[in-house]
Amino acid sequence: MQIDAYLYRKRRIKNGIALVFGSAAAVLGLSFLAWILGTTLLKGMTALSPSIFIEMTPPPGAADGGLANALFGSVLITLLGTAIGAPIGILAGLWLAEYARHSKLGLVVRFVNDILLSAPSIVIGLFIYTVVVMQLSKATGGSVGFSGLAGALALAMLVVPVVTRTTDEMMQLQPAAMREAALALGIPQWKVTLQILLRASRAGVVTGVLLAIARITGETAPLLFTAFGNQYWNADLLQPMATVPVTIFQFAMSPFENWQQLAWAGALLLTLFVLFLNLSSRFFFRNRDSK
């Protein structure tokens, strides 16, 4: 009995020590998160105004200005990048889950996809700069180089692995009985995949797309080497285009106070947008679980 009591007290002491260190680590991490979010909220709210959405980025020394052209560029490049990358990711995920689940080629593709998923975004930006920006500049004699299209391609390469992984996992979660029942009725496999399994997995797939958008929304490094930036309003995808992350990067390091205020406002807008996307993804997951 004494040995049992000793072991019990020893376990309680170890458990208490682990609980203290774990709680301290959690509080420390949450404190930094709250500090970052609080600073962004306070400084962003003071800089937020209607001119942010209706005026273009100001030149050096100007008193007024906004982020209208950068917001437009970010929306356009993000939508185009998602439109390019999401279908590729969905089709790749369907192929991995239904046609190459146990094949060696499928294992290789999953391995490569995992590498892309964890690859630094600046590497993707440099790749698109070398393959697209430099080659277009050479082919057009310098008239087309940095462009919104190159930025969209860089973001698309970040979207593909996220959507591929999510689609693959969501399809594999579907019960085998559903596949077997549909195939037993004589339905072709491609119809089973697209009209039954994909429809059953649509909430998870949409969640993956939303998470991919949340990831690429704040990416700066790929756009520095591709879209570059533009002080003026531009809707031509073959020309440099302003984006919010690149504008924040440039304005935050400037000596002008109004540029720094615009950078804080842009950071707040990005934070709120990413928060909205994360909440939306949770809603889709909850909706799927309830069904």
Automatic annotation (TrEMBL):
A Pfam family it matches: BPD_transp_1
Domain of life: Bacteria
Entry GO terms, CC: plasma membrane
GO annotation, biological process: phosphate ion transmembrane transport
UniProt cross-references to SUPFAM superfamilies, sorted A to Z: MetI-like
Main location: membrane
Domain ABC transmembrane type-1: 71-281
Stretches that traverse the bilayer: 16-37, 70-96, 108-132, 144-164, 196-216, 262-285
GO MF terms, alphabetically ordered: phosphate transmembrane transporter activity
Keyword Transferase in record: no
Keyword tags: Cell membrane, Membrane, Phosphate transport, Transmembrane, Transmembrane helix, Transport
Family the UniProt entry places it in: Belongs to the binding-protein-dependent transport system permease family. CysTW subfamily.
Protein name from the UniProt record: Phosphate transport system permease protein PstA
UniProt source species: Pseudomonas oryzihabitans
